[in-house]
Amino acid sequence: MKRVKTGIPGMDEILHGGIPERNIILLSGGPGTGKTIFSQQFLWNGLGMGEPGIYVALEEHPVQVRQNMAQFGWDVRKYEEEGLFAMVDAFTAGIGKSKEYEKYIVHDLTDIREFIDILRTAVKDIGAKRVVIDSVTTLYINKPAMARSIVMQLKRVLAGLGVTSILVSQISVGERGFGGPGVEHGVDGIIRLDLDEIDGELKRSLIVWKMRGTSHSMRRHPFEVTDKGIVVYPDKVLKMKTIVSIRPGV
Ligand SMILES: Nc1ncnc2c1ncn2[C@@H]1O[C@H](COP(=O)(O)OP(=O)(O)O)[C@@H](O)[C@H]1O
Ligand SMILES: [Mg+2]
Question: pTM score > 0.90 for this model?
Answer without folding.
Answer: yes
